[in-house]
Amino acid sequence: MTENATDRGWFAGLEPGSVDEAREAIDSGGAEAPADWPELAVDAGFAESESEYYDLLHEATITATRATVVDREQADDKQLLHAVRAMDDADRTANELAERLSEWAGTLFDDVGTGVGAARELVDRDPTTPLEARVISLAERVDDLATEADELRAFIQREAPEVAPNLSEMAGPVLAARLIALAGGLETLAKKPSGTVQVLGAEDALFAHLAGRASSPKHGIIYTHEYVNGTRPEDRGSAARAFAGKLSIGARIDHYSGEPRPEIHEELADRMSTIRARAADDEEASQ
Amino acid sequence: MTELPDGVERRNFDGQQRLSTQGTPVYGEPTDGDWRLWDAGRSKLGAMLESGMAVDLSGVDSVLYLGAASGTTVSHVADFAGPTYAIEFAPRPVRDLIGVAEDRSNLFPLLKDARKPESYAHIVESDLDLLVQDVATRGQAAVAVDNAQFLADDGLLCLAIKARSEDVTADPETVFRRVREELASAYEIVDSERLEPFHADHLGIVARKR
């Protein structure tokens, strides 16, 4: 870097009234140490007086901060909901097409495997006939779709912690996004009782239970989390209930305050280790 | 003893002498003329003043406020102080903070992470009189030490430490002792007190920069 960031204030090189540049400087700039910026701004001719400097600073910080908040919030829960549904669609479609592809390609080439991996191998072949060209082109579609699904996943992993910091910390960004999508938004998730959060994604089983055809589901989509599926079956109900309870608290904090709250994560970790200690206790008792 | 700065007064609200400042109301607080109630139950700095800690705010002009949230407390600070820089990390409360700042020409809202002072040192000036910190993150003492660079020599720190943000399982007193030790590298502690009954498991610390 040629610019010396240590002695330049946010106003360095700004023309008066250049709103976008001021926002950029406030948002992305930095310095190693503070300085007497009001005096330096007057010396540099950015402002006539310190009081004019403060007026300019007031306007610039409000404009910049408001724009940044809007940007950050447009990374909001509804966008996440679309992203996670698109990711699932892309994933599912890639797998369906890969199956079709593998069936078709198997009639033309030797040792064609199955799945997205096999499709990616086919992409590297050079077609020798118009027929092979179609099959390889289809393989390219599968490759593209699977890549799109991966990129959507990476996007969700980046964005979910912005939208729902506590939920993402507890559940992981992708499961957090799925819970938001299943509920229809962060606000609706925040307003659901934890018993509902516990069985989100297990609606079929829940309705079968309500119709008297099955026992009540112990867990829905949260089963994909290690806290639930990594707990022994007899304690899984407790684990799912405790996990869902904390998730719904996390969703409420994320919706109403939006601030990270480290202590609830520790409480969850404590609770889970208590539940898992039962397995160890039983093992000891049986010896 | 608490020295109230010009612009902060105890006035009569519902038959009790309560802290208040002059400014545009922010959160539906009771008012007496253009004086508005500063509720110690909603503000850790308010609680530190109300409980009679050795907070000498007289002569305080410029302020850096870390963890401004939606601006409840910082609105009162900007009512009595001069240039007031408000740092908050979460976008949602900052929406409200901007509303508070619009009515106060000396309040500068910034969406920044208090753990990264280099990301706002090009905006926040040096030689400030007061640093107020109320951030619910692990490493609260380190944040105060890292931000001491903004204070003038002898500058004042008013710090609210939330025990549960550091370690939920540890005894709050143990957490508070560790915090005091860590602060000593940059500050001399003038007073420290639990903020009960206003805020449970919080410690208020008043310190001077070394």
TrEMBL record, chain A:
Cellular component annotations (GO), alphabetically ordered: box C/D methylation guide snoRNP complex
A Pfam family of this chain: Nop
Domain of life of the native organism: Archaea
Ranges in a coiled coil: none
GO molecular function, one term: snoRNA binding
PROSITE patterns for this protein: NOP
Classification via InterPro entries: Helix_hairpin_bin_sf (IPR029012), Nop56/Nop58 (IPR045056), Nop_C (IPR042239), Nop_dom (IPR002687), Nop_dom_sf (IPR036070)
Domain Nop residues, every copy: 163-277
SUPFAM superfamilies: Nop domain (SSF89124)
PANTHER family xref list: NUCLEOLAR PROTEIN 5 NUCLEOLAR PROTEIN NOP5 NOP58 (PTHR10894), NUCLEOLAR PROTEIN 56 (PTHR10894:SF0)
The protein, known as: rRNA biogenesis protein Nop56/Nop58
Organism: Halohasta litchfieldiae
TrEMBL record, chain B:
Quaternary data: Interacts with nop5. Component of box C/D small ribonucleoprotein (sRNP) particles that contain rpl7ae, FlpA and nop5, plus a guide RNA.
Listed InterPro entries: Fibrillarin, Fibrillarin_CS, SAM-dependent_MTases_sf
NCBIfam families assigned: PRK04266.1-2 (NF003276), PRK04266.1-4 (NF003278)
Compositional bias per record (Polar residues), positions renumbered to this chain: 14-24
Membrane-traversing stretches: none
Organism in which the protein naturally occurs: Halohasta litchfieldiae
Family membership noted in the UniProt record: Belongs to the methyltransferase superfamily. Fibrillarin family.
Molecular function in Gene Ontology: histone H2AQ104 methyltransferase activity; RNA binding; rRNA methyltransferase activity
Known EC number: 2.1.1.-
Annotated positions binding S-adenosyl-L-methionine: T72, T73, E88, F89, D113, A114, D134, V135, A136, T137
HAMAP family: RNA_methyltransf_FlpA (MF_00351)
Region (Disordered): 1-32
Function: Involved in pre-rRNA and tRNA processing. Utilizes the methyl donor S-adenosyl-L-methionine to catalyze the site-specific 2'-hydroxyl methylation of ribose moieties in rRNA and tRNA. Site specificity is provided by a guide RNA that base pairs with the substrate. Methylation occurs at a characteristic distance from the sequence involved in base pairing with the guide RNA.
Protein name (database record): Fibrillarin-like rRNA/tRNA 2'-O-methyltransferase
Biological processes, Gene Ontology terms: box C/D sno(s)RNA 3'-end processing; tRNA processing
Class of enzymatic activity (EC top level): transferase
